[in-house]
Design brief:
Blueprint lengths: L14 E8 L5 E5 L4 H10 L7 E4 L5 H12 L3 E6 L2 E5 L10 H4 L7 H10 L1 E5 L12 H9 L3 E5 L2 E5 L7 E3 L5 H11 L5 E5 L5 H11 L4 E3 L5 E5 L8 E3 L4 H13 L3 E5 L3 H14 L2 E4 L3 E5 L8 E3 L11 H8 L5 E5 L10 H6 L3 E5 L2 E5 L8 E3 L3 H13 L3 E5 L2 H4 L5 H7 L3 E8 L1 H11 L1
Parallel strand pairs: 2-14, 3-13, 9-10, 17-18, 21-22
Antiparallel strand pairs: 1-22, 1-23, 3-5, 4-5, 6-8, 7-8, 10-12, 11-12, 14-16, 15-16, 18-20, 19-20
Helix pairs in contact: 1-2, 1-4, 1-7, 4-6, 5-6, 6-7, 8-9, 8-10, 8-12, 10-12
Bound molecules: ligand EPZ.
Amino acid sequence: MNRVPLLVGARGCVSLEKYVIRGGKKLNGEVVISGAKNAVVAILPAAILCDEPCVIENIPNISDVTIILQILSEMGAKVRMINKTTVEIDPTTLRNVPVPYEKAKRMRASSYFLGTLLGRFHEAHVSMPGGCDLGDRPIDQHLKCFTALGATYYIDGGMVNLSADHLIGNQIYFDKNSVGATINGIIAATKAEGLTIIENAAKEPHVVDLANFLNSMGADILGAGTDVIKIRGVKYLHGTNYSVIPDQIEAGTFMTLAAATRSNILIKNVIPKHLEPITQKLTKIGVTVEQFDDAVRVIGSDNYTSTSVKTQPHPGFPTDMQPQMAAVLTCAKGTSMVTESIFDNRFRYVDELRRMGANISVEGRVAVIEGVDGLKGAPVKATDLRAGAALIVAALSAEGTTEIYDIYHVERGYENMELKLRSLGADIKKVDEPDPAEAEKALRKAL
Ligand code: EPZ
């Protein structure tokens, strides 16, 4: 298996970090869900719009957050961690410098710097965003938003360059339902003159959380969470103390791993309403889900029946839960169908599940899963964030040992995954294998 040397870790060295998981064990106990990745990666850049320092609580300790805080401080904002999950950002000292490729390429959320710098300075220079390789991920709807508000743009050397004399509210209809474009539209319109109406808006919980964050600073945003969002521009945004919502996808991921390991787990700090589509699908195959005010208890069973899953924009079944659900369905009796209607290439994890004995065939955007009695541990690699999560779900249920490489993908979006799993009784270790090329270089140097 060709494994590319990994990301330069926080320690600045190159390493092949991997998870080593001995599966087949029932888990038990309780786990507390962290703040929502896809909300916080929008809220932190949006803080640039604020005219005073603001405090954001319940932020997860994940690499995407680390990168965004690095970008903000390199741009001159004062960034102070008040505790492990709370940051104070004073954007008043921020300078409008370009957001470079080497930072922006590692995440999709770097596109939010376009909306926030345009919104505050009427100018933005940000590298084209990176993020998970899920197929074609253009930003045409983002650019449609910005030009509707009066901006012009050109792309040069991989940088998106925006400028506007004024930002004037307008009516914007999205040709495609886009979380990122909706978020960028809200951010860019927050201080535009007059009324902006966004139609065919995304309704994900993190869109609502961003709108609530901006409104807590004095913005005037109505309708977030529906198809039509109205933003009346304001001149000034005062400071705020805002707490990020719990992560719907992290909670859903723990629900699927409880199901896959036939465990009984209490998942705390969740908003059960956000988990509805996942709860429904798991219940349908034979999992028991008990709902409380801010927790769900998931009780797995020995036999699951097959089902069909089709990803849809919220409140449909989340595309970010598609790989994890497929991992559960690999051992559900009968034939399951998983249809990915949001992205055109979100089945790259299937090859890795096949290495563990899964029986899956993929035709375009449909995966057909024939249930098998059980999976077997194998060396596999994470191809993106949620694919890595799916491999963890599979490895925990499989007989034997699984090594999951390229776990930097997982650490972009899951806080302390191995610690949380170990607290539930999972046999998981994070092993830091030196990169062979680096080791050879060091050896040559030493000789
Ligand atoms: C956000 O990505 C999330 N990322 C993704 O989560 C999530 O899968 C996705 O929304 C859908 O829910 C963040 O929030 C940082 P989109 P985003 O714009 O905004 C097409 C994870 O695992 N499109 O809603 O990039 C696009 O190609 C990540 O946490 C255009 O055609 O998703 C896709 O097919 C993965 N033009 C569809 O729309 C555009 O201008 C939905 O994309 C924008 C999008």
